[in-house]
Amino acid sequence: MEVLGFPFEKALQCLKGTGKQITTIEVRSRKGSKGDDSRVIRVVDKEDETIVYWAYFQTKTE
Fold first, then answer.
1. What CA–CA distance (Å, rounded) separates 5 from 41?
2. Which residues of the chain have pLDDT under 70?
3. Among 45, 33, 35, which Cα is nearest to 3's?
4. Rounded to 5°, angle at Cα 50 from 2 and 53
5. Can you tell me whether residue 3 is helix, strand or coil?
C-alpha cells in the first residue's frame, strides 16, 4: 500500500491490515525545527516487515 506523504497516524491505520510487522523511525532536522504536522517521508517494504520513516513539518505560519 502506498502511504508516502500521508499523515503519520493515517498511514499506520492503513498499514495495520497488511499483516506485516510495522517499524517506525522518526527523522529529525539537524536544526531542530519544531513541526506541527507529521508525515511519512519514506517507506521500505520487505517480505515480512514494513519500515515507515516519518518527520514533523512546519505547516502553519505565524
1. 6
2. 32-33, 62
3. 45
4. 75
5. coil
Compute the Cα dihedral for 7, 13, 17, 20 and give only its sign. positive
Is residue 33 a contact partner of residue 58, using CB atoms and an 8 Å limit?
Answer: yes
Please report how many Cα atoms fall inside a 13 Å half-sphere around the Cα of residue 41, on the Cβ side: 12
Quote the pLDDT of residue 62: 66
Which sequence spans correspond to the domains of the chain?
Answer: 8-57
For the chain, the residue count is 62
CB neighbours of residue 42 within 10 Å: 12
